[in-house]
Each structure stands twice: as C-alpha cells, then as structure tokens.
Amino acid sequence: MVTERKNIDETWLNRLKGSRAIWPLLALAVILIVDGFISPNFYDIRIVEGRLFGNLIDILYRATPTAIVALGMAVVIGTKGIDLSVGSTIAIAGAIIAWRIHAGDSHFAILLMALGAGIACGVWNGFLVAGLGIQPIIATLILMVSGRGIGMLINLFYGGTDPSFESALLQGLSTGHIWLIPTRIIVGLAIFAALWLVLRKTALGLFIEAVGGNAAASSLAGVNARIIIFVAYIVCGLLAACAGVILTADTHTSDPVSVALYIELDAILAVVIGGGSLAGGRIYLGMTVIGALVIQALTTSILISGLPPEYNLIIKALVVVFVLLLQSKNVRALFSKKAARPSP
Amino acid sequence: MNMNASTPRVEMRGICKAFPGVLALDNVNLTLMPGEVHALLGENGAGKSTLIKILTGASTKDSGEILLEGKPLSFQTTGEAQALGISTVYQEVNLIPAMSVTKNLTLEKTVGRFGMISWRKAREMAREKLRRLKLDIDIEQAVGSYSVAVQQLVAIARALDDDTRVLVLDEPTASLDAQETAALFDIIRDLKSRGIAVVFITHFLDQVYEISDRISVLRNGNLVGTGLAKDITRNELISMMIGRELGEVEATFAAKSNATKGEPVLVAEGLGRKRTLKPFNLTLRAGEAVGLSGLLGSGRTELTKILFGAIRHDSGTLSVGGKSVGRSSPRYSINSGIAFCPEDRKAEGLVGELSIRENIVMSMQAKRGWLSRVPRRDQERLAEEMIKALAIATPNADKPVGQLSGGNQQKVVLARALASQPSILLLDEPTRGIDVGAHAEIITLIRELCQKGLALLVASSELDEIIASSDRVAVLRDREKIGEIEGADINREKIIQMIAGDDGH
Fold first, then answer.
1. Is residue A245 part of a domain?
2. In chain A, which stretches have pLDDT less than 70?
3. Which residues of chain A are within 8 Å of residue B407 when distances are taken between CB atoms?
4. B335: which chain A residues are within 8 Å (Cβ-Cβ)?
C-alpha cells in the first residue's frame, strides 16, 4: 500500500501538479508572457542615469513595499491571525519621519524611530490578541481605524502645514540605487533573507506554525503560545514600518490619509495567492513574494495594455479568483483525481 | 401501522463502519423495542456516536442493514431519518442561543406560505411542541437566557414530533443537577408510555439503572452484550465496559516483574481542583508504572492533566524531583522532565499540518528554547530513530502527521514525549482507537520504558491494559481517588469491585 502510493507520487507530472508552488508561478509567467504580446519591447532593460530601467525592473520596484508588508502578514497569518493595521502603521511611521525631520533629528535616528513606531504598533496588536485574547480581526481593526488619525495628529506637532521633507538617507533607501540596482530591491532582499534566517534557522518558524496549526496541542507540547503570537505581531509591525519608510521617502511627504491605502488587502492577497491558508499553520515566505509580484505584474500589465485604469480592479479580481480556484482542492480534483485525494 | 409490542421498532443488523486505520463498528446489532428506554454504554471511542450517527442518518454505514418496523431503510441525511420519525438530541445542545424559543423550535420546519413565515402559526407550533413536555416557558425569550436544563428540554421538544418513533438522547444529563435530571426522567418515562423507543447514552451508571429497561454495551467497535437492566449487575456491567479478557501480550506482562522501586520522583499531596477532582495523594516512583482506572467521567483525564499542569490545581502541593512546584504549567512540567500524551490526539496532541519530524521535535525544541534550534540533521536522525523504534508506518518523516492512521498518530505523540527525554511520563489512553497490533506494541513499550527507570502513569479505560502495564493501580470513582492496590491484589474482580463501590453486588 505504502509503496504503491509512493510510485504514484514519484512521477514528476503528479509531483508538479501536487506542488503548491506551481500555480502562482504559472500565473506570474502567463501574465508576463501576455505582456510580451501586448507590448513587444516589454522585456527590454536599459540603463538610464546609472540605474536599470524597464518593465520587469518596474514590477520588482513597485512590488517591494507590498512584498515586505506581505511577509509580515504571512507570519501573522501563520499563527492563525491577521493584521489589518499595516496601512495605519505605515501612516504612523511616515508621520514620525516628517515630524522628526522638521525637529532636526539625525536622519539615522529618525529611521530607527520609524521602525520603533512599527514595533510599538506590533506590541499594541500583540497585547490585544495574545494578552487580552481579542479576536485578531477585531483587535487589529482598532489600530487600522485609529492609526491614520494618529498620523494626522503627529503632523499637527509641527503645524501640519507642510509635511514634505528632504532626506538623502531615507530617499536613498527608497528611490536611490546601488550600482545599477534600485536600493529598495536590495532592502527587500535583505529583509527577506533576515526573516528567513530568523524563522528557519531558529525554532521560531516551527513554533509559529505549531501554534497556528493547533494552539492547544502546542501549549501541551510546551510551546509558549502567547509569546509566539506576540512576537508574530511585532515582526509584522516592524516590517510594515520598513515599507512605511520606503513609501514615505518615495513621495517625501507624510500623507496619513492616503499612503498605502488598502495595502493590508494586497498583503493578505499576496499571502493567499502564495498558498498560505487563513486557517494558519504554514508560512511560505518565497511564495508570498511571488504573490506580491503577481499582483503588481497584473497592475503593470493593465497600465501598459492601454485599457482604461477603471478595468484594473476588476481584472485583478478575476485573475485572483482564477489563481485561487487553481489552488482549491475541489477544483483540482476535477482535473486530476489522483492528485487531490488525501492519502489514508 | 403494526404496533404490536413484539415487533422491534428498529433493528440494526451487522452494522460495520471503518475509518482510515480503525474499524469503528464491527458487525454490531442493536434492537430497539417500542416503549423502551435502551441505555447505550461504552467508553470514549467505543463506537457509540458512530452507531447513533448511522441510525440518525448523520453518517453512512459500510455494510449491514437497518429495519424500521420490519421494513428495510436506507437514508442518506438526518432530514430523511427525521421524516421517518428518528430524532436525536446531541450532547452539545444544538440551539441558537440568541434566537427566541419559537424561532429555535420552528427553524427546521418553517410554517407559512410563499416563502413568508407566519409567526402566528410558528408560535402555535412552538407551544404545541412544548406542551408535549409539559414545559411552560415564555417562548419569545432568547434560548440563551434559560438554564442549561431548560435548553436541554427545548432541544428535546424540537426533536419530538407527533410521529416520532425513536428518540436518541446523547448524554442528556451531563450538565444537569439531580433535580433537573429527575425532571428529565419524568419526561422520558412519559415518552416511553407513548410508545417511543428512547436510546439513552450516558456514563452515569446510577442513571442507567434508574431509567433504562435494557442495556447494550459497546467496546472497541464491538457489541459486548445486550440484556435487561434488571438482569445485569453493576459489576457485570463495569466488566463489560472495561474488562476485556487478557490478550496474549498482556498476559505475558501480567506476570509482574518484581522491579525494585526507585525513589519517589513526583509527590502529590491533597492536590485537587474544585468541581474537577477532589483532593488526592499520589506518588510516582522511578521504574514503576502506576495505572489509573475508573469509568468515563471518573476523573482519569483530569488527574493526569492536573499533574501535568494543563489544569491548574487550587489545593494541595505538588513536588517534582524533590522540588516543590508553585504554579504548574505544561511548560514548567516539560522543563522539569514530565512528558504528557493527551487522550484526544487530534485536538490536543498533534499539529496535523506539520510533518512527523516537526511534531516529534516540538517538545524537545520547546525545552531548548527558540534560539537554540535543533539542527535539521539531528531532527532527521531523531525522527528516523523514532520511526524505527516505534515502528511508525510512513514512507518518510516529512509526511504531514494528519495523514497518518490513528495508531501511528498515537506513536508520534509518544515519540514526541520520549524525545523530550522525560523522567516522568503521563499517558492518557495510550491505546485509544488503535488496532490490536499497535495496541500490543504500545503495551510492550510501556513495560520497556519502565524497566529503563522512567516513572509512568497510565490512565486507561481498559482494565486489561491497566492490569498488563501497572505495578500499582489507583482507582477513581466520581471525580475522586478512592484507593490504590498493589502487586498481587491487581486483578479484574478487585478493580471492578472498587469502581462499583460498596453497593455493587
């Protein structure tokens, strides 16, 4: 019985079909191929002012903030939670940057303050979820609603009339480039690598997945579920603040009302496209990044296709539904009965 | 309709049902007569709920047949079963607390025309239903505002119709006090006098004798016996529920090893928790296996969990390895060398999504802390060792544990406990729901561990398992530890007698 199953599993086609990675990658590939037909020089990459330019680079460039937020979201979703407040965290981080630059602090210190604000937001959410036991969607809704208001209040600290600023350091991190590569892509890669190390080279990833998969069993196995959930929200807040630095420095202004609007939804979508389940229990960092790229590639495709931007959201929704259908066990069972049947 | 009393209301013949890795029902027969209260007994996992689910259409049988008043039946849904007059009230009251009594009672069969509900008719219907139980309550109040007992009655009222022929009550008295139970029994007697066949599932033996006419006992998916309540003594009943004759492996070990007792490693004095378990004393020694015997609901699981800190004690003292424990918790226990295998593997034992390897490593990792990760290579080696040592049937260690069969899942829970290198091991129902082969393997393993100097506590609903694996047996009755027996005194009769209490004949 066991060997028989193994043989079925071993054929590469079935393994490919069974692999969760294949569908988001396929979706990304299809979108990029279609783009090639729409716009013949879509794949061109050229060097302008010492930096790479081109549609592919543009997709990476624009997807980076969403991807960073989505990585944090993936961690929280891994605990069976959700963080709706990431957009507000970004607004608060941005407001703090504008405020302290007006106050004349050192820009490096300001960077740390912005990240600290993200950690503080994570501590708040973690306190509500892990400390008080409030359902994550409600707990983070509190900061989601109030966060942008807090950002506007912070803008008032220096009069609130001119929230724009100049900062070589912060803008360098956001819109600058090192050799040919945009800095934010490097920052994004560094964050990805750091998060991967923290999750996979310590036992944190295992604990988060265990708590998300079955909190009661994890506690009985000796895992401190509360602390683990707490840490997950802090990681998510910190990563949101990183994205906040990039987004705020991009426009070099603090705009709490509209910065990163609906980014929480894109982040959740990226996690789900990447194969993460809202039921918790698994974190797929690489696939989450692919998810963010799928979303951005779609947006970019619609822009270059010449379709009115009004179509953007609807086409995005259709593609997302399609990708999710492909991941659904029931739908896959229609295509291949073998691949979808759970083994006994 | 043939209402002749000698025609069985329902006959279930040769019912079989298999779940992956375990035969839940093996050729079970059950006959329900009109106007009888039929008690269905058995420990957790004996197959009671599966049998009931098949009777009420919530689950399908693999083979066998069901006759309703002599006519073969086949239904696929609870709705079809209900239309034929077979209704169930489940243990967890399936009402919607925020909705009014009327709405709860008429939810399934709304009255009215053109998709519009006639609330006037609905109220009439609700009153009619409550009248059957002589229950006089305000039907506009939310169900949640009434006591559990009244909610229980509302649930029964909902299940009853004029044409109800069989009513299944699953643990209806679990959360009722003595008075409420008496009131419920009056209603059951009334239903009985109307010719309804009542199936009564409970683990309170007193209630079984008080209300039922006949008793059927299930164990491990088999029907152990059926008989008139007045013909079965208490001792016989307990013996049927938990006292399987010793198998070959068990018999080997029943010849006690005269292991030298080691030092006390865990001492509980007056340990207890209000409404959970009366204070008890218990000492576990290195190299000694202590069995924990008692019926379902006697406090076996609670005692084990209190020792582990999964349920916090509110009286008495606990000391582990000579050190007194203040606030106990699972984490503290694991760090001080106690490991625990819970009864409910799915809910409390395993993280189904994670692999065998990850599940095995978890406790050991929790003990080391998150920063000092067990290197992947060590994890793999450990998992391989455990898979080999416990004979876990799996193609590889990276299979999600949720896909394994029950017996193999149990071995993974055990492997995780062993990987944390405990000096004290608490096992709650280590052989629940697993096949005979794995059963013997696990008993053998328990004896081996013991010989290596581990202090063991084995809580089990199976007498043979207790007898085979323990050097000493603690007996529980009604959430109280009532005594201990040791050495040659450990035998079926003695334990059954203790469980049955002084009034056992």
1. yes
2. 1-20, 159-161, 327, 332-333, 335-344
3. none
4. 222
More confident residue, A219 or B442: A219
Residue A27 in domain: no
| CA distance linking residue B117 with residue B68, whole number of Å | 33
Beta carbons of B362 and A223 less than 8 Å apart: yes
Helix (H) or strand (E) holding A209: helix A204-213
* Tens-digit pLDDT profile for residues B109-154: 766 666 777 888 888 888 888 888 878 888 888 888 888 788 888 8
Euclidean distance between CA atoms B216 and A277, whole angstroms: 44
Rounded to whole angstroms, how far apart are CA atoms B428 and B310?
13
Structure tokens at B256: 């006690």
Strand partners, B222: B219
Quote ipTM for the complex: 0.80
Chain A residue closest to B347 (CA)?
A217
Q: Measure CA of the first residue to CA of the last residue in chain B; give whole Å.
A: 42
* CATH number listed for the domain at residues B10-242: 3.40.50.300
Strand order in the sheet with B63-68: B22-32, B10-19, B63-68, B71-73
| Average confidence (pLDDT) over B433-451 | 74
* C-alpha distance across the termini of chain A, in Å: 10
Within a domain: A334: no
- The CATH classification number of B247-337+422-505 equals 3.40.50.300
Higher pLDDT, A153 or B440: A153
Q: Distance between CA A25 and CA B429 in Å, rounded?
A: 46
Whether A222 sits inside 8 A of B362 (CB atoms) is yes
Residues of chain A whose beta carbon is less than 8 angstroms from a beta carbon of chain B are: 2-3, 5-6, 201-204, 206-207, 209-210, 213-214, 216-224, 281-282, 342-344
What is the identity of the amino acid at A235? V
A329: left (phi over 0), alpha (psi -120 to 50) or beta: alpha
Number of structural domains found in chain A: 1
Arithmetic mean of pLDDT over chain B? 84
Q: Classify residue A95: in a domain, yes or no.
A: yes
Q: Do A220 and B373 touch (CB under 8 A)?
A: no
Counted across chains A and B, CB pairs separated by less than 8 A come out at: 95
List CB contacts (< 8 A) between B347 and chain A: 214, 216-217
Fold match, B10-242 / B247-337+422-505: yes
Q: Which residues contact B324 (CB under 8 A, 6 or more apart)?
A: B317, B318
CA distances from A305 to A44, A294, B48 (A): 16, 16, 63
CB contact (8 A) between residue B347 and residue A217: yes
CA A311 to chain centre: 24
- DSSP alpha helices (H): ranges in B133-244? 148-159, 178-193, 205-211, 234-242
- Chain A residue numbers touching B334 (CB-CB < 8 A): 221-222
Chain B contacts to A (CB-CB under 8 A): 20-21, 308, 310, 330-331, 333-335, 340, 342, 347-354, 358, 361-363, 365-374, 393-395, 403, 405, 416, 420
Range of the domain at A115: 68-286
Q: How many CB atoms lie within 10 A of CB B460?
A: 27
Sheet holding B472-477, edge to edge: B338-341, B424-428, B455-459, B289-293, B472-477, B480-486
DSSP codes of every residue in A184-202: HHHHHHHHHHHHHHHHHSS
